[in-house]
Write a structure and sequence with these properties.
Blueprint (H helix, E strand, L loop, with lengths): L2 H11 L4 E6 L4 H12 L8 H4 L1 H5 L1 H4 L5 E8 L17 E2 L8 H19 L5 E4 L7 H7 L4 E2 L5 E2 L7 E8 L18 H5 L17 H7 L6 H7 L2 E3 L3 H4 L26 H5 L3 H7 L9 H14 L7 H6 L6 H16 L2
Parallel strand pairs: 3-8
Antiparallel strand pairs: 1-2, 2-7, 4-7, 5-6
Helix pairs in contact: 14-16
């Protein structure tokens, strides 16, 4: 059995559902797209994307000894419609990926296990593991390794797992037989572009993060721009709209990973309960969750936007009470939410 086949077998044993191999290099078109994205300012406040462009666009600039990339994926395909809670206006919608454990921890644990196996099986192998924590172009590498293709929503699409794959990579000094890159199978479909509440796609395959609800609720500091508040609806952490409508999802079986099973308290939680969270309660509720990293204040800001969109008079006092919050961004969002609910009285 060759090295690639042996690594694939071990990765499968460890629970990875998508496995592929690619050379440790990316074509010039990847750098060109990245530079155009940054030049247009579409990365918003994510300054870290500018900091290490050379390493992001070239795996060997990050690690000169790398010869191959092992691209791996774990499915988090939901069992039920992730968009159904958008209609429940007194409740919150949290992105599917954030309803339980932080996927970074789950994927990295398995990547490290596979990396340990590789260096045991191949004594001369060097390895480095990455899960969204370094300047690594995960989606282009995954496409090059045959896991899927970058759809018009710019996320990876798999013919087997739809739009629901967590990605991780192992850079290695081994020369592994590469896969054939996956072709684009989007065709004339524009469902992902058409459904976007904030029109964050200026063109197919181009995302303006500054307009994206995932960016606004997670990465963006400060007040949410007013033009995006109504379109946010009750989305308080991330947005699954463009992923959920992809026709390729019909081939995706619901995941079987316990760490990704939605926690009851994070599946359409009541806005009133979330708005009452102080810092300690916030940290306790979201321990081990990716939501914890945005902090209580940014989270409550998002909750208040959802409250303002709820048209639920019973939430008026909740919004009013937070107008004097110590955080000025929270206080501003509370004032906005209270004003919106006054108009519905």
């Amino acid at each position: 059995m060759g090295a690639a086949d042996a690594i694939r077998a071990e990765a499968t044993r460890l629970g990875f559902e998508a496995i592929g191999f690619a050379p440790a290099r990316l074509g010039p078109e990847v750098r060109e797209r990245l530079q155009a994205f940054l030049a247009a300012g579409m990365h918003g406040g994510m300054g870290w994307m500018e900091a290490r462009v050379d390493q992001r666009a070239d795996p060997r600039a990050l690690w000169p000894e790398a010869r191959s990339v092992i691209a791996l994926g774990l499915s988090y395909a939901p069992e039920t419609d992730p968009l159904k809670s958008l209609a429940w206006r007194d409740r919150a919608t949290i992105s599917v990926y954030a309803r339980n454990r932080d996927y970074h921890d789950v994927v990295k644990k398995r990547l490290k296990a596979l990396a340990r196996w590789i260096v045991t099986a191949y004594a001369d192998a060097g390895v480095k593991v990455f899960v969204d924590t370094a300047p690594v172009m995960e989606k282009p590498l995954a496409q090059q390794a045959g896991l899927g293709w970058q759809g018009k929503h710019t996320n990876l699409v798999s013919r087997t797992h739809g739009s629901w794959l967590f990605l991780g990579e192992i850079y290695t000094t081994l020369d592994l037989s590469p896969e054939a890159p996956e072709d684009d199978h989007c065709g004339s479909c524009t469902r992902c572009l058409d459904i976007c509440p904030t029109k964050a796609f200026p063109a197919p395959y181009r995302l303006d993060a500054r307009r994206c609800i995932s960016y606004l609720t997670i990465e963006h500091h400060g007040p949410i721009p007013e033009e995006f508040r109504k379109p946010m609806g009750n989305r308080i952490y991330g947005c699954d709209d463009c992923l959920a409508v992809c026709p390729w999802n019909k081939f995706a079986a619901a995941h079987e990973e316990p760490a990704f099973a939605p926690r009851a308290e994070l599946t359409a939680p009541k806005l009133a309960d979330l708005a009452a969270l102080g810092d300690a309660a916030f940290r306790a509720l979201f321990s081990g969750s990716p939501i914890k990293r945005i902090g209580r204040n940014r989270f409550i800001r998002n909750v208040l936007i959802a409250i303002g969109n709820s048209a639920d008079a019973s939430l008026r006092e909740t919004a009013r009470a937070l107008r004097t919050d110590a955080d000025p961004v929270v206080a501003e969002a509370a004032a906005w939410a209270a004003a919106q609910l006054e108009r519905t009285a």
